[in-house]
Amino acid sequence: MYISGINMHRTLSTLRPASSIFQSATRHSPGKLVRLCAKPTVRGSPASFSNLTRSFSSSPVRRNEEDDALMRPTLESLKGTTFSYSHFAHETLIILSLQGDGAASEELLVRNIMVTDRLEYEEAVKVFSEIEKENKEYKQFLEYPYLATIGGVGAAGAISLPLVFHLPTAKWFNERFVTMEYPHSSDLDTMFEVGSWTWNWMEPAMGTISFILIAAQFMKAQMQNIGISSATDKFFNKRSEYLAKQFPQYSSKIIMQYSRSVKMLD
What we know:
The protein is mainly alpha-helical.
């Protein structure tokens, strides 16, 4: 005779030792083998110890991975989904445009042209191309100072390495601009010894330049705190105002937002 199972809630409530359980079972089945099945019933429903152990040992990471797999899109769910800005809702484009999305600003302007000029989408895109061209041609020479600054700073950073660590370059610079006494030849055997010598005149210049840059960054931060626009912000504001005046028939807010979203070199 086999015992089909032991109610787990009864076992947990009584907390009887295994010997008493075995004696109780053999009392009802004397002289016969008593076997405790590995599938106890929990409140009347069968559950295996392996499943019970798995439920307690499963990690949160594994459960998160399973939940992530269930939330992933399928090919069937993506059928008919659009990935073009021209298919986005008007409210979505407004939100994206305010967040600085240039493509959304372009699409809003095209739709404004459609409504204002009573044109279909393809014709409105042609009108937008004229606005885009006018926006790019606005005072293109203003980008030259930025390009010159990028080139100058990059060249200064590259030149500073041989001026500090390269002995022939350091000697040439010293003879023409510094005229400092040379150390003993044994003190110039390595590039680091050369750097210790050249640092006597390079440190004041490089330290002063670094402090000027830090002060400029702090000054710019305080200007932003009190609402003073930088030179770059003024450029974008002037360009957007100019473009709105060139095309007054369209919404000034939409056309100015579009102009601000276009970078100088776009």
